[in-house]
């Protein structure tokens, strides 16, 4: 975790009097994690009237492939409104982190073959993670050690490439998260054994998805159920790849997420 300590505590000190307000993305503060030659850009939302003497849940959100880059902005296109909503901030105060994956990488360690007959995804978690995933893991470890974070209420979710990243980070950090949601994602169904009984999950997919076939989510859910997981699966009959808008509109999504603890 080189270079993280001084940087992180410098940011923390500047946030102790932070009071977030408004509905625009400026409430998500810009930050960076630097490890050697690698940089992970991320945006972080603190609760309104943030009080460092209190404990808050931590939510990690992983974006899709279209939001990769280095502007530290595009990752907020999908999902940020959910956490900026007035009702959300009043009823579910939390520290929310949106990291951004660089264009040269993917969150998950996957071999991807794209074709007109359908895209295929092959995951090998035995390999070292991409630098972006490694740094996201380091970021979660750093924040979870702070006294204002409730370590029993760490959550992760993502869409498309971020759904794939969600399944991978659960495998690589099986004792960390209390709950997770994966939207139109995919993963290695043989990797769920070390976290299936430790993390409550909700998986979403569009039945007409022609980017990531619904069978990928179905196979993950089947493996999770067989491994004894507490997992919910919602398939939207008319949705193509963009099933995230429907998932974000689920009235019970946040109440379900924040009800889980380790």
Give the structure's gist in a few sentences.
With 262 residues, the chain is α/β, with parallel strands linked by helices.
Could you characterize the architecture of this molecule?
The structure is a single chain. The radius of gyration is 17 Å and the shape is globular. The chain has an 8-stranded mixed β-sheet. The chain has a two-stranded antiparallel sheet with strand order 5-6. A hairpin with a 2-residue loop joins strand 1 and strand 2. It has 8 helices and 10 strands. It is of the alpha/beta class. It has one domain (4-259): Rossmann fold, CATH 3.40.50.1820. 42% of the residues are buried. The two termini are 25 Å apart. Residues 1-23 have low confidence and may be disordered. It has helices spanning 4-15, 80-84, 86-91, 131-144, 161-172, 214-226, 244-248, 253-259; strands spanning 29-35, 38-45, 56-62, 95-100, 110-113, 120-123, 149-159, 179-183, 200-206, 231-236.
What labels would you give this structure?
262 residues, alpha/beta, Rossmann fold, eight-stranded mixed beta sheet, 10 strands, 25% strand, disordered N terminus
Cα-to-Cα separation, first versus last residue: 25 Å
- The shape is globular
As a whole number of angstroms, the C-alpha radius of gyration is: 17 Å
Number of helices: 8
Strand order of the largest sheet: 1-2-4-3-7-8-9-10
CATH architecture: 3-Layer(aba) Sandwich
Report the portion of residues in β strands: 15-25%
| Named CATH topology | Rossmann fold
